[in-house]
Amino acid sequence: MKIGVIGGGQLGRMLALAGTPLGMNFAFLDPAPDACAAALGEHLRADYGDQDHLRQLADEVDLVTFEFESVPAETVAFLSQFVPVYPSAEALRIARDRWFEKSMFKDLGIPTPEFADIQSQADLDAAVARIGLPAVLKTRTLGYDGKGQKVLRSAADVAGTFAELGSVPCLLEGFVPFTGEVSLIAVRARDGETRFYPLVHNTHDSGILRLSVASSDHPLQALAEDYSSRVLKQLDYVGVMAFEFFEVDGGLKANEIAPRVHNSGHWTTEGAECSQFENHLRAVAGLPLGSTAKVGESAMLNFIGEVPPVDQVIAIDDCHLHHYGKAFKVGRKVGHANLRCADQATLQAQILKVQALIAE
């Protein structure tokens, strides 16, 4: 089976690493000349709207998926005329636009922060008067890793901010005094079978995920699964989806969904019976889903800007290095380390060792 992937970054690379043992081959469509997934398959270098190359991809593969939501939904809709594509164009259309996404949560009875659609500075001023400060202004599309957003704490922060974010459609969200950030990785098969990984505790810095720790018997696991199931069913979703939540007053408020394999699920490569990457491929290919059960105690730490010396990383017991083969650049995710330990005490000790390398 040959899988087409829109996007050739590290997520595409890890999909190919998971699919190759299953006898799958890969082709990646990505405009970047140095797409890091290219080492794992054919690289069609073209823009995501290049219909000639999209047709070429469709003719070469058995099905198509995508590795990130910056892909235009129109690209997926076009490809769907010629080859099966999972997740669907409609799922992508909603998940990549924060207004559509939050509106869906509201319709499904899933708690969210207060929010408002912002099309102008006047809209922003009115929404701030209604929702109050602090609040967060985010572009409706294309924002990730802290990009395309600004925290508003005072009237001075509000003035001119719509133009500062590019005068593009935005979403204003009321600030949530959360006690923690968690994410749930779910996978849904073509026949509707759904499985969930354990909730993950996430730590961010400057909008970028730094640390994810898989939980054991989290008291909000069932609630998170309920909310995620509503979304998966609503979208008739196929593949892996990540659902990010804020922990608030003993419950959960929805932050956002990602219609793809996700950074906070990287720990599953060594820490679960079947990784998120393999399960995504199983789902889109119509194969039986794998077990999402934990194997030991696990965590993931991102390497931002540069990867510490390889020998020092792999010298840490229970540590597994994932180097993306990307050029080092400030603020760029270039690799991660997964830890899988026998118990929580050991896990916490090994996290500190990896963090010490990052701080050097």
What can you tell me about this protein's structure?
With 360 residues, the protein is α+β, with helices and mostly antiparallel strands. It has three domains: 2-85, Rossmann fold; 114-174, ATP-grasp fold, A domain (Dna Ligase, domain 1), CATH 3.30.1490; 180-359, 2-Layer Sandwich (D-amino Acid Aminotransferase, Chain A, domain 1), CATH 3.30.470. Helix content is 31%, strand content 28%. It is built from 13 helices and 17 strands. The protein has helices at residues 10-19, 51-60, 73-79, 89-95, 98-107, 121-131, 155-158, 161-164, 221-234, 268-271, 276-284, 310-314, 344-359, and strands spanning 2-6, 25-29, 42-44, 63-66, 115-118, 135-139, 149-152, 170-174, 180-188, 194-196, 200-205, 208-214, 239-248, 251-258, 297-304, 319-323, 333-341. Strands 9, 10, 11, 12, 13, 14, 15, 16 and 17 form a nine-stranded antiparallel sheet that branches. A four-stranded parallel sheet has the order 3-2-1-4, with helices on both faces. The chain has a four-stranded antiparallel sheet with strand order 5-8-6-7, sandwiched between helices. Helix 1 links the parallel strand 1 (2-6) and strand 2. Helix 3 (73-79) runs antiparallel to helix 4 (89-95). The longest helix has 16 residues, at 344-359. The model has no long low-confidence stretch (mean pLDDT 96).
Overall body shape? globular
Q: Mean pLDDT, rounded to whole units?
A: 96
The succession of helices and strands, N to C, reads EHEEHEHHHEHEEHHEEEEEHEEHHEHEEH
Q: Could you name the CATH homologous superfamily of the largest domain?
A: ATP-grasp fold, B domain
Distance between the termini: 44 Å
**Helix count from the secondary structure assignment:** 13
Number of domains: 3
Rg measurement, Å: 20 Å
* Quaternary form: single chain
Helix coverage percent of residues?
A: 25-40%
Low-confidence stretches: none
Proportion of residues in β-strands: 25-35%
Structural class: alpha+beta
Major beta sheet summary: 9 strands, antiparallel
Query: What name is given to the CATH topology of the largest domain?
Result: D-amino Acid Aminotransferase, Chain A, domain 1
Q: Give the second-level CATH assignment, the architecture of the largest domain.
A: 2-Layer Sandwich
